[in-house]
User: Fold these one by one.
Assistant:
Number 1:
Amino acid sequence: MPVGKIFTLVFLKRNNSVLLGLKTRGLGEGLWNGFGGKVEENETVANCARREVEEECGVIASDLKQIGVVRYDLDYDKSADVVHIFTCSKFDGFEKPSEEMNPIKWYKYTDIPFEQMWPDAPKWYPFMLKDKYFSARVIYTDKNTIKDSIIQEFGSLSNALKLAQ
Ligand SMILES: Nc1nc2c([nH]c(=O)n2[C@H]2C[C@H](O)[C@@H](COP(=O)(O)OP(=O)(O)OP(=O)(O)O)O2)c(=O)[nH]1
């Protein structure tokens, strides 16, 4: 399946909690998620991650670290989306909701609202929360149904990125 669009998704961390926002529109509306969006033309993946965090929750990320990638094969629209996953534990400014993510809330690692998130989140969040390099591939038959998934941990980011290609 050809790769369609490339996205980023960033998780801010503080005191064993992660900042999530409730998406108010578009893809994933009504679901809690990290902050991110589509990589624009002539933009690096890391610059997209930094820009989206600032646009969606008002802070400047200073130690963004890419830890993984999730490839979504969408049977229903015959394309694959690739989402680059980042974590960040140092940032400047105060977090605030935005038009796209409202409200925002710090969730303890033990209290993440998986019942109101994309169905694949519980499969790879454990790696993200521990800052382990990982790669995931998820096949959806429709927006709510996972047909198959593979998640693997890696020793380095470069190896983790191979599965996304
Ligand atoms: N494409 C895609 N993105 C997903 C999936 N699951 C998931 O968490 N995401 C994340 C990645 C992005 O952070 C976000 C989707 O990006 P978006 O539609 O908000 O992109 P954007 O901000 O550029 O959109 P817009 O403001 O231009 O409307 O959701 C999925 O299955 N497909």
Number 2:
Amino acid sequence: MGGTQQVVVKERANNLPLFVTKEAKGKLAFRLFSSSIFVGICLIWAYRVANIPRADEGGRWLWIGMLFAELGFGFYWILTQAIRWNVVRYHPLKLNLSQSSDDKLPGVDVFVCTADPVVEPPTLVINTVLSAMSLNYPPEKLSVYLSDDGGSQLTFYAVVEAARFAELWIPFCKEFNIEPRSPEAYFSHGFDVPEETANTQQRRSIKEQYEYMVKRIEAVINKGSVPEEVKNQHKGFSQWNCNVTKQNHQPILQIVVDGRDTDAVDSNGCRLPTLVYVAREKRPDCSHHFKAGAVNALIRVSSEISNGAIILGLDCDMYANNADSIKEALCFFMDGERGHQIAYVQHPQHFDNITKNDLYGNSSPVLNKVELHGIGGYGAALYCGTGCFHRRTSLCGSKYSEAYKESSNWGMRKEDKRTVYELEEASKVLATCGYEKGTQWGKEMGLVYGCPVEDVVTGLSIQCRGWKSVYYNPDNIAFQGVAPPTLDIALVQFTRWSDGLFQIFLSKYCPFIYGHNKIKLGAQMGYCVYLLWAPSSLPHLYYAIALPFSLFQGIPLFPQVSSIWFIPFAYTTFTLTAKVVTDDVSKRYHREIMNFGSTSIMFTVISTLAMVNLLSLVGIVLKMFLWGSDVGKLMPQVVLFGLMVSVNAPVYEAMFLRKDKGRIPASVMFKSIALASLAFFCSFKVDPSM
Ligand SMILES: O=c1ccn([C@@H]2O[C@H](COP(=O)(O)OP(=O)(O)O[C@H]3O[C@H](CO)[C@@H](O)[C@H](O)[C@H]3O)[C@@H](O)[C@H]2O)c(=O)[nH]1
Ligand SMILES: [Mn+2]
């Protein structure tokens, strides 16, 4: 081949597309179906408005309430259509990327956040760290940072142990190409190979080493402090003087593995990735902004040490499952045509502890498999906090510009001649409390402060600076986390999210205002599906309350089955989402039985509603059988009501039948019976005609 020809071939290889976009199947069918539902909704609204009872008729206010509830349902439904209308999927073309050489690849910094050694045990944290260190990527371009908001030397001790174990674990992972890359997940899933191969022997030996390490760490945790002889083995421990507490300490920072060091090698003699432990400064009089503050400190610290152009953020329980996830993400960022527009690539949150029936609805299949693709179709994938690859520049506040297309010299890393000590001291300054004063950190730079769901609002502000984002949900799951295993933890999490998301809607970040002319209308609507998640519960609540009362008082709220007006109602299926339906009666989460067991106010609400339904049911049955009352004209309500009562079955069971510790406590039960009876008999007085 002549010289010119060679150049042409090379150029073409560089210009190969690195990802493709595919539209979801069945788009037309969906759009037709969706339009027909819209017609149904309009008919329901028309029916409600046209049939409002006169002031002298019963049930006027109940009816007007229904009108508002159905307007609410309908508008929310319209918002949800925005994220189903245009579902697209992006597919990376990894083989095309592998045609460009390693030295073109950008540096990648992985951030792992932990906050408390009790709630988030150090062995869990180091499994995430180890899984990140062993990702398939050139080690001299990979750095892992652990942010420890617990400021705990127990966690630091576990990290020191993990660094040593990494020397065995990384070559093992790469030699046998195993997945998942978290040792705990790998060994606990029982990958038993029948015949004695080199792999089995080596696996057994590494498993032993792993278990031995876990034992050592647990012994130290049980003791509550690190023994003197262990402390003497690593200079890092000297940073914990007697004044260090979780809320009050100087910045603590230790480069545990220095990736520049040619002597930092694994058992095969290959270089190790950089590993850094950071506990940013904490002072009682200085707000630390939770995870957002921790991530922003890491952004600065990492810019001093490795300055990777790509940042992967992981919660401490999200281990890497797919070993090639970095290269897949790079396909999006490095695509010659569109890559320069992309600020981040978000993976869904997957959990490895989901039970068969997904008792608390944690796996959110509609969200992960449809909606997030749908909003991603507008180039506006949500940033969900964990499992997300960011471009450093866009995360640090820069505006998008076409000029990025020309200037993508990813591979460069500046030569740094400073000693580890000098580097550590320079980095500590960036992790002090005072550093952010008077700067744009927490506003235009880094993660946005002041909202419990800092991630979503940060993603929105990045998009409003002109960037695009990609949602990517590969079959080979990239990251796996831990879903809340009890109902109250799950509810607290949902409350924090729905509350925080609604705050965004009410703030200056409301997508319709903040995103106006900056992101597409469909994306604005899509954001609002989540931001209005909390108020969207109000129409549900109204249905749950109005239905039993109206039924007991004999007020029809729906057209009779024989009426033509019944058709649109039957078509829209406004039933309550049956997240709690399970007939399993075993005790623990893995045996899939609901765990109430606490006196949380949320359980009082749930059981009071269930009691209102139950009392009405008793009332209706009495009316029918004792007084021979005709419930024919109430048929649609009776059906809906029957569904509602059956959805509540686990609640009745937990109140009256169960004896285990997960039952609804007696105090909650009595409270809810009292409240429900009160509400019930008040309504009884209001309408003496029944
Ligand atoms: O002061 C804090 C508090 C939390 N974290 C870390 O933040 C992560 C998420 O906290 P967690 O308690 O697990 O909350 P989740 O509800 O599971 O988090 C989800 O929701 C958050 C927004 O509410 C996102 O930031 C998370 O990425 C997302 O996984 C964990 O790694 C924590 O260690 C800190 O580093 N510092
Ligand atoms: Mn979590």
